[in-house]
From TrEMBL:
Residues 4-247 form the NAD-dependent epimerase/dehydratase domain. The keyword Magnesium does not apply. The lineage of its organism: Bacteria, Pseudomonadati, Pseudomonadota, Alphaproteobacteria, Kordiimonadales. This is NAD-dependent epimerase/dehydratase family protein. It comes from Gimibacter soli. Pfam families: Epimerase. Keywords: NAD. InterPro entries: Epimerase_deHydtase, NAD(P)-bd_dom_sf.
Amino acid sequence: MKTALVLGAGGFIGSHLVKRLKREGLWVRGVDLKFPEFATTEADDFLIGDLRDQRVVREVIDRRFDEVYQLAADMGGAGYIFTGEHDADIMQNSATINLNVLDRCHKRNISRIFYSSSACMYPAYNQEDPDNPNCAEDSAYPAAPDSEYGWEKLFSERLYLAYARNHGMKCRVARYHNIFGPEGTWRGGKEKAPAAICRKVAETPDGGEIEIWGDGLQTRSFLYIDECVEGTIRLTRSDKTGPYNIGSDEMVTINQLAEIAMKAAGKKLTLKHIPGPLGVRGRNSDNRKISAELGWAPSVALTEGIAKTYCWIATQAMANRR
C-alpha cells in the first residue's frame, strides 16, 4: 500500500487533501498543531505536534513515505499577513518548519515532496494594474513581494529547489492562488476574502450593508478547493519540478466577488467601502505553463464554487448564532 504524509493536515487544504488521498486507497498520516476544525480527520494516523521542533519532526518522519505534502505554515488572510504585526512570527515559524522537514526527509531518503508556495511571492511592481497583472512563473525576478509572508515563500521555494538539485530529491513546488471552499476558516481574522464576504452576506439581512476594504476594484482570482487538490496531486506525481501556478484565471474585482456571494444568498446588499489592508492592486493566476506542461487547468466556475461555499458558511453562521 502506498503511503503519504500530509503536514498541515488540520488546516483547510490539508484536510481536503487527506480525504482525497484516502479515497485513492493510500495510507495517510496527518500532522498539525490541531485537528481539522469542521470535520473529523480521515487520516489513518494523526499526530498533534509542532513542526518547528526538530524532535517532533523526527517522530513524525520516522520512516519513508511515498509522498510528502508540506502545507504547514503560519498564514492567514489580508488582515493577518498585510498589517505587519505578525511579520517576525510568519517568517520564523514557516522557515523553521521547512528547514526541519526538508532536512529530515533527506536523511530518511524520502524523495517525492510537494511544497505549497503562494502567489504572494510575485513582485508587487507587476501587480499595480488591476486589469493586467503579470503572474507568469518567470516573472518572479527581480524579486519584490509585497509582504514578509511572500518573502518567506520565495526563500522556501529556493530551499526546496536547492535540495532537488543537490540531493536528487523530487521536490515539487506550486504557487497557490487564493484557495476557498467549505470547511475553511470563515471568521476570526485569518479567513480569506471569499469566506469573509460570504460570512458578511450570510449575517446581514436582505437590504442591509456590508463592509469592503478599499474601493473594491482590486482584482483577484479564486480557486475552488477540489481543483486545488487535483492540481496538487497531479504535480506531485509528475516528472515536473515547477514552480507552477495552481489557481484560477477567472479574475474578478472584490466588488464583483461580493455580488456573486449576494446572488448565491438571494440578497441585495449595499457595499460600504472602508480603509483596510489590501495587498497588491491586481493578481490573477497565469495558467499557460501548467496547462502546456501538465495538461491541466481548473474547470469549476467561480459562481459554482461560491454557491457551495456560501451554503456551508451560512449554515455555520446560523448554528453559531444559536
